[in-house]
Amino acid sequence: MTGASARTIATAAGVNQALIFYHYGTVDDLLAAACVTTTRSRVARYADRFAAVTTLRELLDVGRALHAEELAEGNVSMLAQLLAAAQTGHKLAGPTGEALQLWTAEIEAVLHRLLADSPFSEFADIPGLARAIAAAFVGLELYEGVDPAGADQALSALSQLAVLVELVDELGPLATRVLRSRLKRATRPT
Length: 190
Fold this sequence. Notes:
By secondary structure, the protein is mainly α. The chain contains nine helices and no strands.
C-alpha cells in the first residue's frame, strides 16, 4: 500500500516501530489484521440495520448509507489500496477476501430471508447473488471516484430492479405459477 511503512504507521500510532515487528512480524501482516478486525467492527455496527431490512430497496438503502459513511471515513480509498495490493501481495489477498466475505455473509442472509417466498428463490443462486452485490458495491465505491453521476445512475438502476422483483412477488397465485413454470423452462439445461 502506498506509504505504508513500519515507520509511518508507528508515527501515526505514536508507538515505536519495533512494536509492529514484535506483534505482527511484517507491515503486510499488520495491514491484514487491521483489515479483518476493522471490517468485523463495521459489519457488527450494521448488523441491526441488515436484520431490519424487509425489501430489496431497503437493502439498497442500507448499502447507500454504508457507502456514504465509508466514503466519509476514507475507507473507500483504503479498500482500493488493499485490493490493489492484494493482486500482487499474497499476504493481503486472503485477509482482504476474508473481510469482503464478512459483508457478503450479511448480504446473503438478507437475500435468503427476502427471497424465501419469492418465485426467484428456486432459481436464484443466492450465495452467488450476494457475491455479485458485494462486488458491485465495491466497484461502485471505486467507480464513484471518477464518475459520481454514473455511480448514482447505476444505483438508481438497481433500485428499479428491486421494484421489479417486489412487483413479481406481489403477483397472485395463478400468475406466480405461470412465472415459475416459465422460469423452469428458461433455466432447464439444453
